[in-house]
Amino acid sequence: MTYSFRRSMKQHWKAYCMLLPGLVILILFSYVPMYGLIIAFKNYSPIKGILGSKWVGLRHFSRFFLSSTFPQLLRNTVFLSLYSIVVGFPAPILLALVLNEVRRVMFKKTVQTISYMPYFISTVVVCGIVKAFLAYDGVVNTILNTLFGIQPSSILSNAKLFRSVIVWTQVWQYTGWDSIIYIASLSGIDQQLYESARIDGCSRLRQAWHITLPGIIPTITILLVLRLGSFLSVSTDTILLLYGPMTYETGDVFGTYVYRLGIKGGQYDLTTAVGLAETTVNFALVILFNTLSRKITGTSLW
Amino acid sequence: MKNRKNSIREGSCIADIAIYLFLVILSVIFIYPLYEVIVCSVSDVNAVVIHNSFLMWPVGFHLEAYKMVLSNKNIWIGFRNTMLYMALGTTFQYIVTVFTAYPLSIRDLWGKKAILIIFTVTMYFSGGLIPYFLLINSLGMYNSIWVLIIPLGVNVYNMIIMRTQFLNLPAELKEAAEIDGAGDITMLFKILIPLSGAVSAVLVLFTAVSYWNMWFDPMIFLTERKLYPIQSVLREILIDDSSVQAAGAGAMNSKLLHNVDTAAVQKLIKYANIVVTTVPILCIYPFAQKYFVKGVMVGSLKG
Fold first, then answer.
1. DSSP H/E element including A54
2. What is the CATH code of the structural domain delimited by A60-296?
3. Tell me: the pLDDT tens digits for A3-21?
């Protein structure tokens, strides 16, 4: 039974007061920007303000979707996102599964601690290291040259390699950290299952495949749905720190485009439209995959 | 757990060797970049040039680069600003978090469901970068440190974790306190918060780390150099290749610049910058690790 408004107020007016600052901040800094999205449908002029600017309907959207940059941005974003999911999503699962096979507690703990380390290095520093290591006179070129005789080149300005640089940088940074959640869910698997499998003569690989993996499928599903919820917004900050005009061809994604044209270029209305399209697709993907996952696996976010 | 160690899965020896080898190689890959940075940063500049920045062990032991980094006053200003933003931001966010989590954990509070929905919607949908940017500008918060404190006060994810923690505390306890006449203030400060120490520690740590790493918002909203947090200073040095910034003011007189090509010197200074700003954190994290791990799990419970 829910209390009436009056009774709640009388008993818990202090609680309502506590709620106030959070609610004000949320409305001001989350909901007011949502209202600000209407400039995507207007010819925004800073002097006239959001309300005073003229409506232009879907002109910004059509201008963007018909522009020559759109196919490139879409291709870059989708490729990078798929690449990142195909490589970056299974990596922590694999690490957790392998760590699960280790029986020496000290060794396991040490490897885990080491694998979390990159997560505690800030993104700026990680990208700084990547930049220095991939430079013409950097250590990666030196190693490639000594081992395989490959001529040194400026790897970071090679558009063909840019996606790999971004994806593997993030794999390095996040794999250990992301494995925590899988390791936690692995510890919840009933140990008797392994016992009986072993009695039945099941090999370790098959135990991992038939017991361990199914045991963490719910966790995998949830995290995959969440990951798909940022499908179009993937790795914007790493790209912003590492890309350049030489790599726009493969590295420019929706997020970086919005930053460059919006914040730097002042084309607020157009980039708001781009951002809105991005958020809408992301949102639709979460809903779609959440529904799918509820129907197929029975696990869902809500 | 214990009996698994000796009774289950006496797999083949080869599989074991492969697993251990794999993990050792992986650990090397995780450690190597930072190791190389540290090794080069203390080595002789000429050796770094000769070996093309690939050194297994330090050649000599030189602290010239560190002297330059530590004499760069921008680094110190950056440290100070980051500490300030971290202290203010973490405190403010924690207060707002418990203040919102508590009412939303009260059973039968009128309007609770609607307010919860208002909060959670923002996790999945937002106005995006540009409308936020325009709002901050129109509020006059551009180039003000409050842009990094006030809007970040509400962290819905943390609020949900805190709320779950409050909800999980035994109901009898809350009822007993209520019968003894505890109001909202007493309930929150005398009962709920003292019993939520571990979760509080987790949330505070997560917030502190995010303040330490923050670079995007400062890049957009803070253009005055005296307001730069450490990551903004580092971005100039490491990403924008600003040599003047890297070397600092007194560098021109240093004997480092006299003997070899400046590119190598720049690189060493960059590396020293990385070490100075990263190693302190890396010395702390193994001790705080169990809280972080716990935090990930607390968060996943809600899922």
1. strand A54-55
2. 1.10.3720.10
3. 677 887 888 889 999 999 9
